[in-house]
Amino acid sequence: MASFSSLARSSAIMTAGTLTSRILGLVKASLLALAIGVTAVQADAFDVANKVPNTLYMLLAGGVVNAVLVPQLVRATKREDGGQDYTNRLLTLSFLLLAVVSVVATIAAPILVWLYSSGWSPEQMALATAFAYWCLPQLFFYGLYTLLGQVLNAKSSFGPYMWAPVLNNIVAIAGLAVFIVVFGTNAANPHTLDTWTPEKIALMGGSATLGVAAQALILIWPLKRIGFKYRPTFGFRGVGLGTAGKVAFWTFAAMLIGQLGFLIISRVAAGASVPGEGNASNAAYTYAYLVFMLPHSLIAVSLATALFTSLSKNAAEHDTEAVKSDFSMGVRIVGLINAFAVAALVVLASPVAMVIAGGGREQAMAVGLVIITMVFGLIPFSANYLAQRVFYAYEDARTPFFIQLPQIVFQSLAVLSASIFPKSVTVAIIGLVMSLGYLFAMILSFALLSKRLGDIDLRAIAQAHVKFLLAALAAGLAGYGMLLFFPDFALSGQWQAFVTTAGVGTVMLIVYIGVCFLLRVRELHSIIGLAAGKLKR
User: Fold this and answer.
1) pLDDT for 36-45, tens place per residue?
2) For 414-480, what is the HEC assignment?
3) Could you give the C-alpha distances from 173 to 31, 144, 498, in angstroms and in order?
4) What residue intervals traverse the membrane (predicted)?
5) What is the C-alpha separation between 498 and 294, in angstroms, rounded?
């Protein structure tokens, strides 16, 4: 069982890296909005092109690598050579598959852009395809980054994996800054569809891909520092890759249906993109999803990454009680943070949208509405993410597949129905549907996990979340009350929105912590005790 103190230290290192990366990511998003806009057709063209390699990677390899590699490497350490030969063969096979898929995907750029768009003009399709040729090589580097990062995680070296994206953002920010200096902002020099030269496209798409490449290659250095030496090793039969193949198959199947669901979301959202109307569409969805993922990435992903190695070791040793204890602790700590995030983002959705994407009041309110509908699903999304890691620790990817299947069917049918509503609210309805889907998946995951492991401390988890939500309600009312004193200031400009977000957010955090303290939330007391150096081990 992972100790709270060691888990907190590992999570803090990763959270610091993720926070730095996310802050730079927000800077990058703001520069991108300044450079090419948010609700303009060229913004949607670049968004789809730059999103395709990421979504394809998550479909073809991302979930597979995350589910397979750490448990397999942990079990391989029991071999005579410490798992070195097994690791080399697994990495070699993965590198080959990534290279082949990346080349094929780049060649198929026009088809992929067509799949992820809907109702676009030939000019917009041509621009998105040109961007895609530059962006699709990211697929290989995303895979390389995850493979090398999971090797580090399996060896309990968590920091580099979470800090590497910082370099990606720095490179991308530099590229956007050069673009703005050379070609101007969208407001000063509108980058309409007929203004995109090969040089402009290469700078915009190429700098994005260069950042992802830097993120992957920087991990070679920490691997050398911990003594890992990779040697290409071929011959993939009879070395124990069968179990990994079965887990990979079910994980791939789950990612496939997940991406089919995302494909429907992308096409329905793209249908809301109408020149001159400024509706929330694909780019607005991406900005809202960036905000939604921020607290999840900071806390849930960092904590799950630190827990996954411990969960895999305990599962391999059949220590069920340790697995249940780690899971319960993880869900409660993540819930403590996410409950505040929900309250803060509901109250400050529009100012946050303006801080990230700039633009006027109408744009901020359009993106803010999407943020609100998405963020209601944050708590179940993160809780289900942790539950999946327990299944994966037991080399069970089949159960998560059958959890995700009905979730995606429900979400897809509901998203398709969103197209009958006015285009101005299409993406907001998509966000609400996603939240309901996350809630359904969490309930099903917890039920199946309880059936497999026995009591997973559901009463303690539920009681803790009731306290979290009461404190979040108090914080939300305090924040909303503050906004009533200056309703126009918050959305009168980007710096005003930042001041509002920082000021109101700070007050909400103080209220939230205060109420949690009064309600005797033990997770908060543990964190305070650790910070003060008084936690009893």
Assistant:
1) 776 567 777 8
2) HHHHHCCCCHHHHHHHHHHHHHHHHHHHHHHHHHHHHHHHCCCCHHHHHHHHHHHHHHHHHHHHHHH
3) 7, 22, 20
4) 55-74, 95-116, 128-148, 160-181, 201-221, 247-269, 289-312, 333-358, 364-387, 399-421, 427-448, 468-486, 498-519
5) 16
Q: Where are the alpha helices (DSSP H) in 271-360?
A: 282-295, 302-316, 320-347, 349-357
CA distances from 211 to 16, 59, 205, 420, 461 (A): 20, 21, 10, 39, 40
C-alpha triplet 10, 16, 22: angle, nearest 5°: 130
Q: What is the pLDDT of residues 59-75, one digit of tens each?
A: 655 555 666 666 777 77
- 491, 350 contact by CB (below 8 A): yes
* Residue-wise pLDDT tens digits, 142-184: 888 988 888 887 777 778 888 899 999 999 999 999 999 988 8
| Own/partner long-range contacts of 253-257 (Cβ < 8 Å, ≥24 apart) | 253/401, 254/63, 254/397, 254/400, 254/401, 254/404, 254/405, 255/58, 255/59, 255/60, 255/62, 255/63, 255/64, 256/59, 257/401, 257/404, 257/405, 257/408
Q: Terminal CA-to-CA distance of the chain, rounded, Å?
A: 12
Q: CA-CA distance, 269 to 263, in Å (whole number)? A: 10
d(CA 482, CA 487): 9
Q: How many residues does the chain have?
A: 537
What distance in Å separates the CA atoms of residue 399 and residue 446, rounded to the nearest whole number?
12
Residue 193 has pLDDT above 90, yes or no: no
CB crowding 271-291: b at 16 or more within 10 Å, else e: bbbeeeebbbbbbbbbbbbbb
Q: Is 419 exposed, middle or buried (0-12, 13-18, 19+ CB in 10 A)?
A: middle
Taking the C-alpha atoms of residue 215 and residue 217, their distance in angstroms, rounded to an integer, is 6
The Cα–Cα gap between 202 and 135 comes to: 10
Domain ranges of the chain: 4-531
The DSSP result for 226-266, as a single string, is TT---------SSSS-HHHHHHHHHHHHHHHHHHHHHHHHH
